[in-house]
Records
---
Amino acid sequence: MALSTNLNPILGVRERKKAETRASIQHYALTLFAQKGYEATTVEEIAVAASITRRTFFRYFKTKEGVVFDSYGSHAFIISALSIQPIALTPLQALRQTLCLMLQDTKPQDLEIFRKRLKLIFSEPALQVALSARLNNITDSVAKLIAKRTGKSPEDFEVRIFVGAFLGVISTLEYEWASSPDVDFADSINRAVAFLESGLRL
């Protein structure tokens, strides 16, 4: 997302360098995780591979787990994009449009990094537990926005089931995409939403 034009250009350069360093740390961490395994890889090894100090690592990520989940699902982006969808759209159409915007906003190389992170998450029990906690947070946030669109409570049974069903579908698609990189993720999302709209008729 572009920086506001009223920001000091020096800040823009600084922010870009920070983003590059963060991406570099993730790159080397994911490479080491693939080679040695998540549990066997230490923060010190990641720092050495990325040519930074251990202290620098913790300036960017609070934990080793944070390297994997940094921007997972772009929680903030999802909430922001969903909140501005036209009220005329059905909840399902609004969610579909939100995901389309998310994919359009993501560069191909970043999408590939996201796929590698998903593959790692689904292969590590400890990371799967952490994923569940994050999905609960996303569910709560999305439920609030869907409830606002429908005039219902975020705790309404049907709202929770609706959001849970949608996010469950997305999780299934992410798992398949992580396992098979040739899968067209955007096309899968459109097909899945169309299937949900049909009433899940088999």
---
Amino acid sequence: MGPKAIDRMLALEPPREPLDSLAAVWRDFKWRRLERGHRDPCIKFTAESKDLREAITRACDSRGADGKLFFHQGRVWQVNRDAYAKALLRVQNRKRMTKAESFHEVWEVCSIVGGATHGIGTITTYDVAARLCAYLGWPARRIYLHGGVVDGCRSIGLNVNRRPWIERRELPPPLRFVENLDYVEDFLCGYRILIDRIGD
């Protein structure tokens, strides 16, 4: 979210405490986003798939159960998302995901295939991996760098130059102790403006 969107959010519903520390900003995020289920609706929809083929189709389509396109993929053409799904549905890629034993292994498949698919960038490859891992049951154990997450990591003082991810041990408390770091990825991207404002 940009500064204007953040300010609108705070004006509509003021924070429950001063947002003057990373811990306070994280608590606000948990209250507004996690406890109320205000995250990518495609995650839940993909997790409810009957099999991996359906999960891949839903994850790449980037729509929730209501049929609305998730805003992250607002500039990704349907034809490119369909081509991405078709590539991930190939037998060798489905086998790799079925045998995967971590979020990272699924992300690697999504990243390699996404990099070879016209019109698919790092944000979409991460989002698709997160949705598929919700179906497969693999929590994120690293922070993968793309889009606004890069700025969020810089806001908490991390060096992100020419790196594809950040390890858990590099995160400050309280973020280091969150079980599924996909939540922290969402926080660093969506709340980076508020993190920057700490101490102003």
---
Amino acid sequence: MSAHLTSILKHGGIAVIPTDTLYGIVVRALDKKAVQRLYRIRRKTPKKPFIILISSREDLTAFGCRPNAAASRFLRRVWPGKVSVILPCTGKKFSYLHLGTKTLAFRLPQTRKLRALLKKTGPLVAPSANKEGRPPAKTTTEARKYFGGRVDLYVNGRTTRAPSTLVSLLSGTPQVIRSGAGRTSAIKKGHHRPFLRSM
């Protein structure tokens, strides 16, 4: 993906890009003003955090997330891939992201171009490119109908027709919250030790 896209995101801009699943509308997760701008144009529900794309498991530490041994083994099985994982994130510093839920969902995508972008920009908040309650945009033309000039850049590319599989690690075992593009074989495979909320 282009240097122009990287520059826009680093300067607090919003872009619609092809992710490893659907088209996403993205901003830098550690840019509070950009995230708040995204919430204003994308969502009405006040207590529903967006998924965050990361370039490596090490990026979790930037959000105060430290998975225990059992959770780390699970993440190695499903990442990189089309599985988004909900983890505890209790810090007040990130309340603009977790919106009081004290949890965040992360995904480490398999797409090399996307991971290369994430290494340059840092983690990206990446909900699907649609208004809340409307169908996800399948093309940038559809995304423009939703957001128009409120998005700084639209990037064409290939996407899937399904969102990521969403899994919670907040209880004793992995719980599939939403079935999607990600394989569930690794989620259902074997016995899992309890995942601690202190991870």
